[in-house]
């Protein structure tokens, strides 16, 4: 087979490639492979192949194997679905799932509309837009660990705590914040929303810039009010971004770990034990040694739930986002 | 990280900034009630952003030089009993923040280096050299985007404890942080798409002039790719500064831990004013980086959305 025989069938991309390595498509022998750039291809791919092979592809496959095994660091034996059965029988799992749903739900109700509202308002600012964006993005810059430790101090339950002082100005009595089982989770959501809003705001601002101004002009010709412009032009134009941001937020909040781990360690009274905190406890906080099998079984279950959820979500929204 | 639309080109925000209208028309803005409402909205918006964005940082800066008792009793008063500059020195020396600060920089620098190395070489091979098996590799890389990172946690940890071939545990070795973070499919996706958009004629001309694949990579592709390299750098460094759980697991020795891991650990044993000073010092690197490269940061954040959207 020669190049000329194959040429008519070549795709645009392959043609470009051939220009770069003209001999690559000739017959295969070690010498032509070498002269065609086979070796330099491999040299450029080697770092990626090694790093992905060892630290990404192989652990992904291992996790499915390990979920069916009982493993300590030296030996492992097959136990079938025992790990899954043990995890499902753990009385703490129900608590962890409910807590995670509670966190995700609160974050959705309060944390999802807020950045959108702020972005719409900020996009109407005529001067000093950059200052507004920078201010909104500052909390994202602060390392999450520092933010959590700082907020932990703000959440001081004594009457002289920072937040208790502030709400005291408007006559609200001191709150226990993260020290009570009732208010702990909402407190974590408040911090998480503060920490994440800036990133979403910047994404919405970029999306708002891409709304064609002619649409607003046209709406005005039809006599649309400001609210109707928002409802009939802005929001439909942002639909695609909003759909994606929603599912990304759900996926992220289903994996919340840092806030419950550092604020409360899962307490008080297990009210902030999330699925990831539970996985961490199985694997690394076990007096009997790491229960790696059950930890991977639970993470595989979480991954499957998230995969099914996102698949169903995309099937469902496909219709609305396309027309 | 799901639903990537590869067709969409990274948008250039700068060129769109001069679109001079949004929801409100000039006519709207001239109407009395609208103008009054917008003024009120702007005041509250600006005030709110200052309080929420700048407030905690300013408070932390103040608390870093305030005696413990003042921070506890009257946290919102402005220096009721004077300034205690010694906090910063104590945090730096006695709480060993100097060492953890250095560890943080080493970790961030290494993560940055390995992420750029992997993303550029892989991006070049998959976009420009394009061997016939490239689509398979490309798919294998993209597929990892759909796997939540939590699935990797335990097997990856065991890989670090018992790495293949070398047989020596990588615990407490910075490679244990650098290499797994470099297996980042998002970086490769960004870089590959940027390389895809570079004009092929330039490579062709260089080849005609006798440049080999290494020369094309180093002297042509990389210099043309500064914008995307800046974006990947920002992502890499910020992610390294933010990471907690992974370095916490694979760097159990306090002497090699970064600030993010060390701060929660020293909280109990450190006096509050010194601890708050330590927190303040820990925010310095990211804030300085943000102020210096604000445009790159904000463009990266928007770009992340464009890719996701």
Give a description of the structure.
- The complex is a heterodimer of chains A (323) and B (309).
- Chain A has 16 helices and 2 strands.
- Chain A is mainly α.
- Chain A folds into 2 domains: 3-82, no CATH class; 84-322, MetI-like (MetI-like fold).
- In chain A, strands 1-2 form a two-stranded antiparallel sheet.
- In chain A, strand 1 (69-71) and strand 2 form a beta hairpin.
- The longest helix of chain A is centred in the C-terminal third of the chain and has 31 residues, at 292-322.
- Chain B is mainly α and 309 residues long.
- Chain B has 2 domains: 19-91, no CATH class; 95-266, MetI-like (MetI-like fold, Orthogonal Bundle), CATH 1.10.3720.10.
- Chain B is 70% helix and 0% strand.
- In chain B, helix 6 packs antiparallel against helix 13 and helix 15 packs antiparallel against helix 16.
- The radius of gyration of chain B is 24 Å and the shape is flat.
- The termini of chain B are close together.
- The relative contact order of chain B is 0.14.
- The chains are: A mainly alpha (323), B mainly alpha (309).
- At the A-B interface, helix 2, helix 4, helix 7, helix 8 and helix 9 of A face helix 3, helix 4, helix 6, helix 7 and helix 8 of B.
Question: What's the quick description here?
Answer:
Chain A is mainly α and 323 residues long. Chain A has helices at residues 3-6, 12-20, 30-35, 38-66, 82-89, 91-111, 113-123, 129-141, 144-154, 162-169, 184-209, 213-221, 226-254, 258-264, 275-284, 292-322, and strands at residues 69-71, 76-78. Helices cover 70% and strands 0% of the residues of chain B.
Largest sheet of chain A: 2 strands, antiparallel
Strand % of chain A is: under 5%
- Strand element count of chain A: 2
| Amino-to-carboxy terminus distance of chain A | 47 Å
Instruction: Please state how the strands of the largest beta sheet of chain A are arranged side by side.
Output: 1-2
For this structure, what is the CATH class of the largest domain in chain B?
A: Mainly Alpha
CATH topology of the largest domain in chain A: MetI-like fold
Number of domains of chain B: 2
Structural class of chain B: mainly alpha
What's the name of the CATH homologous superfamily of the largest domain in chain B? Answer: MetI-like
What is the H/E string of chain A? HHHHEEHHHHHHHHHHHH
Question: What pair of chains forms the biggest interface?
Answer: A-B, 119 and 116 residues
> How far is the first residue's CA from the last residue's CA of chain B?
10 Å
Shape assignment of chain B: flat
Please tell me the CATH architecture of the largest domain in chain B by its name: Orthogonal Bundle
Instruction: Name the CATH homologous superfamily of the largest domain in chain A.
Output: MetI-like
Number of domains of chain A: 2
């Amino acid at each position: 087979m020669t190049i000329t025989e194959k040429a008519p069938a070549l795709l645009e991309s392959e043609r470009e490639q051939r220009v770069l390595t003209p001999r690559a498509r000739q017959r295969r022998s070690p010498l032509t492979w070498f002269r065609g750039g086979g070796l330099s291809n491999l040299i450029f791919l080697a770092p990626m192949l090694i790093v992905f092979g060892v630290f990404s592809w192989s652990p992904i496959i291992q996790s499915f194997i390990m979920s069916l095994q009982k493993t300590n660091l030296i030996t492992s034996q097959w136990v079938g679905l025992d790990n899954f059965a043990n995890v499902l029988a753990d009385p703490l799992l129900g608590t962890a799932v409910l807590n995670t749903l509670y966190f995700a739900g609160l974050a959705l109700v309060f944390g999802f509309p807020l950045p959108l509202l702020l972005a719409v308002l900020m996009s109407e600012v005529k001067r000093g837009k950059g200052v507004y964006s920078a201010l909104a993005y500052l909390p994202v810059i602060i390392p999450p660990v520092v933010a959590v430790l700082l907020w932990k101090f703000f959440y001081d339950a004594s009457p002289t705590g920072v937040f208790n002082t502030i709400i005291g100005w408007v006559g609200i009595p001191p709150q226990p914040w993260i020290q009570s089982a009732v208010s702990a989770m909402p407190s974590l959501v408040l911090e998480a929303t503060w920490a994440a809003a800036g990133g979403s705001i910047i994404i919405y601002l970029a999306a708002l810039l891409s709304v064609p101004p002619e649409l607003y002009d046209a709406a005005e010709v039809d006599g649309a009010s400001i609210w109707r412009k928002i409802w009939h032009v802005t929001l439909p134009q942002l639909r695609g971004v909003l759909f994606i941001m929603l599912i990304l937020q759900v996926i992220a909040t289903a994996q919340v770990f840092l806030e419950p781990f550092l604020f409360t360690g899962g307490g008080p009274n297990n009210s902030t034990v999330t699925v990831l905190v539970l996985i961490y406890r199985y694997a690394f906080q076990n007096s009997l040694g790491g229960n790696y099998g059950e930890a991977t079984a639970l993470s595989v279950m979480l991954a499957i739930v998230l995969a099914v959820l996102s698949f169903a979500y995309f099937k469902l929204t496909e219709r609305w986002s396309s027309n | 990280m799901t639903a990537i639309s590869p067709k969409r080109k990274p948008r250039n925000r700068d060129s769109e900034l001069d679109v001079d209208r949004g929801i409100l028309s000039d006519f709207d803005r001239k109407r009395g009630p609208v103008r009054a409402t917008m003024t009120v909205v702007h005041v509250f918006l600006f005030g709110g952003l200052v309080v929420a964005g700048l407030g905690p940082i300013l408070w932390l800066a103040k608390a870093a030089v305030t005696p413990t008792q003042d921070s506890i009793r009257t946290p919102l008063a402005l220096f009721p009993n004077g300034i205690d500059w010694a906090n910063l020195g104590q945090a730096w020396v006695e709480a060993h923040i100097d060492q953890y600060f250095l560890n943080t920089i080493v970790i961030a620098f290494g993560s940055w280096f390995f992420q750029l190395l992997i993303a550029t070489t892989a991006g070049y091979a998959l976009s420009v050299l394009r061997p016939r098996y490239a689509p398979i590799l490309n798919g294998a890389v993209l597929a990892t985007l759909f796997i939540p990172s939590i699935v990797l946690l335990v097997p990856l940890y065991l890989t670090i404890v018992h790495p293949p071939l070398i047989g020596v545990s990588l615990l407490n070795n910075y490679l244990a942080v650098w290499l797994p973070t470099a297996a980042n499919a998002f970086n490769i996706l960004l870089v590959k798409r940027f390389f895809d958009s570079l004009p092929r004629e330039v490579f062709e001309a260089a080849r005609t002039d006798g440049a080999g694949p290494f020369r094309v990579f180093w002297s042509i592709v990389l210099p043309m790719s500064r914008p995307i390299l800046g974006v990947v750098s920002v992502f890499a460094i910020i992610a390294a500064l933010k990471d907690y759980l992974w370095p916490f697991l694979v760097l159990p020795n306090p002497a090699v831990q970064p600030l993010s891991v060390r701060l929660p650990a020293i909280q109990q044993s450190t006096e509050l004013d010194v601890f708050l000073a330590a927190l303040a010092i820990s925010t310095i690197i990211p804030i300085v980086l943000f102020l210096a490269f604000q445009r790159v940061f904000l463009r990266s954040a928007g770009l992340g959305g464009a890719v996701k959207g």
